[in-house]
Automatic annotation (TrEMBL):
Pfam families: Response_reg. GO terms for biological process: regulation of DNA-templated transcription. This is Response regulatory domain-containing protein. GO terms for molecular function: phosphorelay response regulator activity; transcription cis-regulatory region binding. InterPro entries: CheY-like_superfamily, NreC/VraR/RcsB-like_REC, Sig_transdc_resp-reg_receiver, WalR-like. Keywords: DNA-binding, Phosphoprotein, Transcription, Transcription regulation, Two-component regulatory system. CDD domains: REC_NarL-like. The modification 4-aspartylphosphate is found at D58. Coiled coil: none annotated. Residues 7-123 form the Response regulatory domain.
């Protein structure tokens, strides 16, 4: 994890949503978006290169979906936190995403403060688990 702003990657197949996510993530100044991808496989490659602190990941994407990508993302950047940001109901998907390695689940439609809090909380939990 970095000492400066948290470095975040966005992975969603809708470019306009990624733009809104970028503005929302960077709003408080303690996070910066270091990359974006519209497909999960491209996202795996991106996080392998960037080694970000966290990722906001959609589940429904072309090619491999976000659920299939979670273990690949975890392998590509083991220290990174994975926050799923999806339109699927948390009741239906949160447990499954955590089983395959996600740290948090936020439903699309949540306000960006909730999204930022999920990223911050996941990073803090990961640091505490490492004893940092």
């Amino acid at each position: 994890m970095t000492a400066g702003p948290l470095r975040i990657v966005l992975c969603d197949d809708v470019p306009e949503l990624r733009t809104l996510m970028r503005f929302g993530v960077e709003e408080d100044g303690d996070m910066t978006v270091v990359g974006e991808a519209g497909e999960a496989q491209a996202c795996v490659e991106l996080v392998g290169r960037e080694q970000p602190d966290g990722i906001l990941l959609d589940l429904s994407m072309p090619g491999i979906d976000g659920l299939q990508a979670i273990p690949l993302l975890r392998a590509a950047a083991p220290a990174m936190v994975i926050v799923v940001f999806s339109g699927f109901s948390a009741d239906r998907m949160e447990g499954l995403t955590r089983e395959v390695g996600a740290d948090r689940y936020v439903e699309k439609g949540a306000d960006m403060e909730t999204v930022r809090a999920a990223l911050r909380g996941a990073v803090a939990d990961r640091a505490a688990a490492r004893g940092a």
